[in-house]
């Protein structure tokens, strides 16, 4: 997302060479959702540029390629997994977690495949799992089975909270597109590990987005007080204001937990002037 066009020149300097764009983004936020890795495994050289642009404590949460999660459905994907792990190795400690995003058709009957897959993963990484089948949210037995598998592997369950998006009809083209693509599932908040991860999707209207994240600010503050280290990704359908919204969410949590460290100071989008 650090090359998102609406941010260029508004929040991030423009033009910037590709090898500097992540560095500018990292002055706004200290974590990134690795969505591009879902579509293709990056080259090792590309990942080396990501490492050079970020501090060792910057958090990458990288999605496994869809060839593993969606096409092979976690089975017989050893070659693809090895290639992916070799490519992301240069990030070192920056890999906060590897993200297993599963398709909506991956349901309770597939939990055994997930358990086998998680058992075969290298222990040096942490793992997060995102499910979209409604049964995991509506059937207590299915939820318990999934949590048992995740707990046995020390993996986290990533909630994708779209409840604010679906609370009322869409009012923009981006919202209408999101209505056709995003999962419509109940909000889920419990954390399974000391590194909970949250995806929150608001609206293109800033005020409605901020109003809707109130429960998450309280929840994240509680996790911090418990000694957990949560990561929260703030989305809107068009993501045009996602950078300042992420910082605003961080400020809301800091108001509840004052000892939380501030985010870095963003690099100016435009060079300073003499007047």
TrEMBL record:
Gene3D superfamilies: Protein of unknown function UPF0759. Pfam families: DUF72. This is DUF72 domain-containing protein. It comes from Actinomadura violacea.
């Amino acid at each position: 997302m650090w090359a998102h066009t609406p941010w260029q020149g508004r929040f991030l300097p423009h033009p910037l060479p590709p090898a500097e764009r992540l560095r500018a983004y990292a002055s706004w936020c200290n974590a990134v959702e690795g969505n591009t890795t879902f579509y293709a495994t990056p080259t090792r050289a590309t990942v080396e540029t990501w490492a050079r642009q970020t501090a060792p404590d910057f958090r990458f949460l990288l999605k496994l390629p869809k060839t593993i999660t969606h096409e092979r459905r976690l089975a017989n994907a050893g070659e693809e997994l090895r290639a992916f792990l070799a490519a992301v190795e240069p990030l070192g400690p920056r890999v906060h977690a590897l993200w297993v995003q599963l398709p909506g058709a991956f349901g309770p009957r597939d939990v055994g495949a997930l358990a086998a897959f998680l058992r075969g993963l290298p222990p040096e990484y942490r793992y997060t799992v995102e499910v979209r089948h409604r049964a995991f949210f509506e059937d207590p037995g299915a939820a318990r089975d999934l949590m048992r598998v995740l707990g046995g592997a020390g993996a986290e369950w990533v909630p994708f909270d779209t409840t604010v998006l679906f609370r009322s009809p869409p009012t923009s083209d981006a919202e209408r597109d999101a209505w056709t693509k995003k999962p419509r599932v109940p909000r889920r908040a419990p954390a399974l590990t000391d590194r909970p991860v949250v995806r929150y999707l608001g609206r293109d209207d800033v005020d409605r987005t901020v109003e809707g994240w109130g429960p998450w600010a309280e929840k994240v503050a509680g996790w911090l007080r418990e000694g957990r280290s949560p990561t929260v990704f703030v989305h809107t359908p068009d993501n045009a204001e996602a950078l300042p919204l992420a910082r605003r969410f961080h400020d809301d949590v800091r108001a509840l937990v004052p000892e939380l460290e501030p985010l870095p100071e963003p690099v100016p989008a435009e060079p300073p002037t003499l007047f």
